[in-house]
Amino acid sequence: MRVASLSSYDIRFPTSRELDGSDAMNPDPDYSAAYVVLRADDGSEGHGFTFTIGRGNEVCRAAVDALAPLIIGGDLSDLGGLSRRLTHDSQLRWLGPEKGVMHLATAAVINAAWDLVATAARKPLWAFLSDMPPDELVDLVDWRYLTDALTPGAARDLLVDAAPGRASRAEHIREVGYPAYTTSAGWLGYPDEKIRHLAHQAVADGFRQIKLKVGADQADDVRRFALARAAVGPGIRIAVDANQRWDVPAAIGWMTALAPYDPWWIEEPTSPDDILGHAAIRRALAKSGPDGGPIRVATGEHVANRVVFKQLLQADAIDFVQLDACRVAGVNENIAILLLAAAYGKPVCPHAGGVGLCEAVQHLSFFDYVAVSGRLDDRVIEYVDHLHEHFIDPVVIERGAYRAPSAPGFSTRMRPESLVRYAYPEGAAWS
Amino acid sequence: MRVASLSSYDIRFPTSRELDGSDAMNPDPDYSAAYVVLRADDGSEGHGFTFTIGRGNEVCRAAVDALAPLIIGGDLSDLGGLSRRLTHDSQLRWLGPEKGVMHLATAAVINAAWDLVATAARKPLWAFLSDMPPDELVDLVDWRYLTDALTPGAARDLLVDAAPGRASRAEHIREVGYPAYTTSAGWLGYPDEKIRHLAHQAVADGFRQIKLKVGADQADDVRRFALARAAVGPGIRIAVDANQRWDVPAAIGWMTALAPYDPWWIEEPTSPDDILGHAAIRRALAKSGPDGGPIRVATGEHVANRVVFKQLLQADAIDFVQLDACRVAGVNENIAILLLAAAYGKPVCPHAGGVGLCEAVQHLSFFDYVAVSGRLDDRVIEYVDHLHEHFIDPVVIERGAYRAPSAPGFSTRMRPESLVRYAYPEGAAWS
């Protein structure tokens, strides 16, 4: 199969009207998608997108259009080669390299290609990937800049070691689902009573971990954390997320103030580019928990690419790898990140929420469990109860766990009527 | 003064037809500029741009247009505040943060604002900055994410210490000029005889340092380096530049093969995001020079922002800070980088070439000498003899040194006829 055409769309949801999604750095997001439809020469389609929070979504769409000539006519039997062609174009590469708008757009295009291929194979993406031989998986990765941390040979060994357990793990995960945690309780714009109610509800719904946004006002954060802890009790994990609000010294001070309420992790304490800063924060908080244990450090939703993830692992700067389905260059680069995390023994706990990020990223975690790390301990996928109704194959959450997706493809297809209604600026939702 | 309007242009020069600018990662660049004209309410203008190498220049222009509503109406008396407003827009920030296309576009807009303000003050930008009091310079910087390495107070102290010598250094640099090195001899696409001739010519023209592109073929590199060394003799510094071609182990091996010819620095040995990789390469080459001394490490033209520069300094990963006038968010972020480099005692040797990068960046080095580091030892500005004829106030090189710019502004204004002829795709150069 070859790619016959690419269509791009600017889709935006007016979420800022409700303060859903509000945090210390992003007070008023309009959850949006730069959305791509690839059509193959046999008429089949693949859908993909990248996630933004409103203004500038049109810039990502322009970047998708700039990539279109590199994929139209491309062979869908070699998605490793296609991925490298998109990220290494000799002129477009200057605009990153491998970061920012161009990389977000590349994610949308590559994810659409995977949706097309997995749909054609009549398998959900996670199962499609989990059925691939180790050598083929290794060939999907762009190994440039990784070999000082992980070689293709070592990655292959890791996949070969995991291969015998694939079938039984696939069966297990279909049965029990993949553990989720919820961020829906803790948006910064929510009043105390709403947080209390939602935290309580989360536990009733079966979640064993929730997350609170922090970082705007320390006294507010202490109060909100205390009431959330009281609502859920001591056995439920509460993570906190500062969305990059702090410098290194501020992160250490603020988390020390929150420590009595037993934070499970601090997420994005500072700049996502600051590998050494995360390492310094993690070292400083290594004995700051209420029992003298660590306050763990997590980041990833804004980590630009595999080279930065590599260093976060080399520097032992984080406890949890929060990859995002649409920030790095799609499925291929996320396979690299899953392999790096497994090699360094760090749990992957993906970022999700936004528009369709839950739908997409669940496939990567299911694949990780079945074919890469083979582990579930301390692994959770973020869950936010937003905008799933716009997807043809929305996530299913039961008793705090993602059910294994069963429909063919990457679960990345929006309903046609949503693509019309939320088209920006001409759709009815914006008029 | 307030900003009344912003106009953006997609300007491209068909340089790939001549193999000028060819290197191991960029074989066929069409040097381009996403170009901005700001008009103030009093009718005065400021021009700025960011540099790209062709395809995708339209994406940068779209990003400039996305920033326009944030600057139109903005007060030009507070360029620190304006800079922070552009880089921290709560929705646009998601597209970086502070990197890639959005940051390139931000550079174009902020640099145009500085051109406007310095022109109105009837001073060349370097002199305009050099006349500002330390407190005002400190206020221009976005200190977020820097305070674990350098606080505003420490930066102020550094500027205050340098203040007494400003006048005499300004006089000195006007007299002798700022040392340059030339890359014009060593493009990867050039035949041996052309390299030999141009290397010889560079020395005759007064340059004490030249640079060769490497990284495509090791045997070719050894041959080219040997003939360049023979042409210039032992007293001239020859830097080499791999343009991010290698992984860490490959960089160490390749540079060991080139060591007998006495490379002054290896530039961009690997990914610009790889702080720990640069540190590992620098450590491995610390005694690899022909006399048992170091092969020095340089990078910066693709370093995304001040947070990555901060870490390159904290990790002692580089010997030379190669800031770029248009990759980070313009003058303001480059002041932060100059301050960081001075605090860590590392020489700044800016990246230049491309379209107008020499014109712009010279102002930052002159300012650095007069008001920040106060030093010239081992400092050089890159020089490439390309496309200067399109600028109203082109750089002047004499005996291997940049002459101090004397016209008001940032030297960033292209000739109106060039803006018409090289407009893409409609200009005559492209028809």
Quick rundown:
Chain A is an alpha/beta fold. The first copy, chain A, is built from 15 helices and 12 strands. Chain A folds into 2 domains: 3-123 and 419-430, Enolase-like, domain 1 (2-Layer Sandwich); 165-410, Alpha-Beta Barrel (TIM Barrel), CATH 3.20.20.120.
**Helix content range of chain A:** 40-55%
Overall pLDDT of chain A, averaged? 96
For the record, give the distance between the C-alpha atoms at the N and C termini of chain A, rounded to a whole number.
Answer: 40 Å
Alpha plus pi helix count of chain A: 15
Q: Look at the structure and give the CATH class of the largest domain in chain A.
A: Alpha Beta
Using DSSP, what is the number of strands of chain A? 12
Could you state the order of secondary-structure elements of chain A as H and E? EEEHHHHHHHEHEHEHEHEHEHHEEEH
Portion in strands of chain A: 5-15%
Give the C-alpha Rg of chain A: 20 Å
What is the count of distinct domains of chain A? 2
**Biggest interchain interface, per-side counts:** A-B, 60 and 60 residues
What structural category arises from helix and sheet content of chain A? alpha/beta
Oligomeric description of these chains? homodimer
